[in-house]
Amino acid sequence: MGKLSGIAIAALCLIGLLIGVAAVVIVQYHYSNEGTIIEPLEVSLANEPLEDLDVIDWTDCVRGITTPFGDLTVKNIGSITVTISLTTGTMPTGLTIEWTPDSLTLAPEEVATAPLSLTVASDAPLGDFTFDIVLTVETVP
Fold first, then answer.
1. Would you place residue 47 in the very low, low, confident or very high pLDDT band (cuts 50, 70, 90)?
2. pLDDT averaged over every residue in the chain
3. CATH 2.60.40.2310 fits 41-139, yes or no
4. 88 Cβ partners below 8 Å, 6+ apart?
5. In sequence order, what are the residues at sequence separation of 6 or more whose Cβ sits closer than 8 angstroms to the Cβ of residue 124?
6. What confidence score (pLDDT) does residue 102 get?
7. Which residues contact 141 (CB under 8 A, 6 or more apart)?
């Protein structure tokens, strides 16, 4: 009987091991990746570095007045010539952004500076506003 119970214990251990192995679950997670290889720029506004997604705070603007913010400076720190254009997302009614020129071409290490200003029409609605400024960089063939 001692021998049989040793075999029974061994069989139970083997069954337990098989059940334990069968209970192992492997889960894999996959993550998509995306990005863009870019020509780098240094951008500053009113002599302060400006990073992607920074907020430009125009504070209080008055109807019928153009508010200058300061010079928007762009430096091509890449290795090839690029064209840079400034556009805006949907502008709130009565607001106009100005940075002249709207588009320019910069060789490597070249810098361009121009004043950035916001004009508020005399009939612009009162209240808070938001809009996006987008600098687009295109390589020059």
1. confident
2. 83
3. yes
4. 97, 131, 132, 133, 134
5. 63, 92, 93, 94, 95
6. 78
7. none
Per-residue tokens: 125: 């609605």
For residues 99 and 49, give the distance between their C-alpha atoms in angstroms, rounded to a whole number: 17
pLDDT in the model for residue 3: 54
E strands, the chain, are 41-45, 48-49, 66-76, 82-88, 95-99, 103-106, 111-120, 133-139
Average pLDDT over residues 24-32: 71
Which residues lie below 8 Å from residue 71, measured CB to CB, with a gap of 6+? 45, 46, 47, 113, 114, 115, 116
Cβ neighbours of residue 9 closer than 8 Å, sequence gap 6 or more = none
Which amino acid belongs to residue 122?
S
Bridge partners of 136, per DSSP, are: 85
Question: How far lies 114's CA from each of 4, 28, 36, 91, 99, in Å?
Answer: 94, 52, 27, 21, 6
| Amino acid making up residue 123 | D
At 14, the pLDDT band (50, 70, 90 cuts) reads low
